[in-house]
Amino acid sequence: MGMTRILDAEQMRRALKRIAHEIVERNGGTANLALVGIQTGGVPIAERLAVMIGEIEGPPPPVGAVDISLYRDDTGRGGASAHMQPTDIFFDLTDRKVVLVDDVLYTGRTIRSAMDALIDLGRPASIQLAVLVDRGHRELPIRADYVGKNVPTSPNEQVVVRLEENDHSDGVFVEREKEGNDDNA
To answer: Confidence band (pLDDT; 50, 70, 90) for 143?
Structure first.
């Protein structure tokens, strides 16, 4: 397996700064705006975006975290098992412009699950989507409103996002899985 860096720390910072500017511009400021990060990678990205938005337009919008474990459609079907993370949304979602934030957009199923979770908590005026990386391969008709970087990938590749908050460094990598099976060698 090999890993190729596609974003370093400075490139990540610039991509997030651009997304922050786009969010402020599209929403005409920060009035009635909130950011909600999807556990786990989306939460620190949402927090960073809120700080950047505050620097642009001030004050920063509130930031929440949503866990989608109970909303996944692959739990118990050979997919990911439900590993609960806290949902922490301390503000009312009703009639807010909510920007849902995640690190990587792939099939769209995580985003669908997150929207279901948000709607169970309130009725936002709108839900927008911001992602650091869009790698393609959609299975559902979902697209991001704000994208840090589009990275065409093959299904046998994985996008790995490292964040200072969790991994002590920033970087985005494409990991290529070894093709074929060496068991027959």
So the answer is: very high
Look at residue 174 and tell me if it is in a domain. no
Structure token pair of residue 165 = 């908050």
- Domain assignment present for 40: yes
What are 29's two structure tokens? 């400021």
Q: Which domain holds residue 29?
A: 9-74+82-154
* pTM, rounded to two decimals: 0.90
> Is 23 part of a structural domain of the chain?
yes
Straight-line distance from the first to the last Cα atom of the chain, in angstroms, rounded to the nearest whole number: 17
Helix (H, G, I), strand (E, B) or coil at 102: strand
* CA separation for the pair 90, 9 (Å, rounded): 30
97-105 β-sheet, strand order = 63-66, 33-38, 97-105, 126-134, 146-150
Question: Is 176 inside a domain boundary?
Answer: no
Predicted local distance difference test score (pLDDT) of residue 139:
94
Structurally, the chain folds into a number of domains equal to 1
Q: Dihedral of the CA atoms 17, 23, 28, 32 (nearest 10)?
A: -120
The count of other CB atoms within 10 Å of the CB of residue 151 is 18
CATH assignment of the domain containing 119: 3.40.50.2020
Q: In which residue are the tokens 């001030």 written?
A: 58
Instruction: Strands of 56-145 (E only): list them.
Output: 63-66, 97-105, 126-134
